[in-house]
Amino acid sequence: MSQAESMLKVVSVNISLHKGTVKQAVEEIRLFGKGVEGDAHSGSWHRMVSLLGTESFEKFEAEAGRRLAYGEFAENITTQGMKLYEMAPFDELHIGDIILEITQIGKKCHGTGCAIYNEVGNCVMPKEGIFARVIRGGIVKAGDGMLYKPKVFKVMLITLSDRASAGEYEDRSGPEIRQHLEAFFSINRWQVNFDCRLIADDPELLDRLLLEAEENGCDMVFTTGGTGIGPRDFTPEVVKKRLSIEIPGIMEAIRMKFGAEKPNALLSRGVAGLMGSTFIYAMPGSVKAVKEYMSEITKTLRHLLFMRAGIDTH
């Protein structure tokens, strides 16, 4: 379910000097480029700062049979106002000028290496805690307001077809791409805005749209059409000129998988790569080919997004 921007409140800030121990509430914490100053979990990794909501505390207290102190689950920041585990990676939390980017929901339980687990035989942090990295630091204290801002991915879809753009028939390939992506983003609880374009087979117009997508900070561009060897098939050449990094394995694997049964699939010149920080996939124009390509592309898309962000999820 998509979330909207909302306000939360910081109810406690907590620090521990050693891993695997409960954190102690303090008056304030300072966030810097590696996490929480003085905290055992700070470092050059994606789980710099841990957060847990009082919403998770309340239901766990019944299981523990006692009141729990903030910091007992080893969270740096205790919040109130929203179920944190319903957020998603790449969403942001703003505390004044401070910006935290969510990098992970939950974690592997330490089992007997965790103080609260040893007492109760369970722990809420692995399921409902979240982790973030510091984008912009500063001082945080109890009582501070916190603005939740969900990440909204920007995707441009470009269908290249002289006949469809002239209204001779309906574009079905572009909507097919969108359908696959809507399912992908929904499963990952990510929001997305689509910019759909239907253009003639015009290399200069395609190049301008690619430049526009990069300049506007699009996360992804998907093109369909123009990957064959006909006189109006130029998409791979235009796309390759814009690539800063090519990712050849994706398209090679797709060609081999479907070409094993249908040799004509080997003739597609589909391309994938990065254009600055924008992923781009150039696919064939038929609806059948789009279904085949998207079924494989979406398998690696989540991992590629984390790789692009420099987040190691292994």
Task: Annotate the secondary structure layout.
Layout: E1 6-15, E2 24-26, E3 28-32, E4 35-36, E5 49-53, H1 54-64, E6 77-80, E7 92-95, E8 98-105, H2 115-120, H3 125-128, E9 130-136, E10 138-141, E11 145-149, E12 152-160, H4 162-165, H5 173-187, E13 191-199, H6 203-215, E14 220-224, H7 235-242, E15 245-246, H8 248-259, E16 271-275, E17 278-283, H9 287-308
Parallel strand pairs: 5-6, 12-13, 12-14, 14-17
Antiparallel strand pairs: 1-2, 1-6, 1-11, 3-4, 3-10, 5-9, 7-8, 7-11, 8-9, 15-16, 16-17
What would you say this structure looks like, in words?
The chain has 2 domains: 6-149, PK beta-barrel domain-like (M1 Pyruvate Kinase, Domain 3); 152-308, Molybdenum Cofactor Biosythetic Enzyme, Chain A. A hairpin with a 2-residue loop joins strand 7 (92-95) and strand 8 (98-105). The model has no long low-confidence stretch (mean pLDDT 91). It contains 9 helices and 17 strands. The relative contact order is 0.13. 30% of the residues lie in helices and 30% in strands. It is elongated. Helix 5 runs parallel beside helix 9, helix 6 (203-215) runs parallel beside helix 7 and helix 8 (248-259) runs antiparallel to helix 9 (287-308). The longest helix has 22 residues, at 287-308. The chain has helices at 54-64, 115-120, 125-128, 162-165, 173-187, 203-215, 235-242, 248-259, 287-308, and strands spanning 6-15, 24-26, 28-32, 35-36, 49-53, 77-80, 92-95, 98-105, 130-136, 138-141, 145-149, 152-160, 191-199, 220-224, 245-246, 271-275, 278-283. The protein is α+β, with helices and mostly antiparallel strands and 314 residues long.
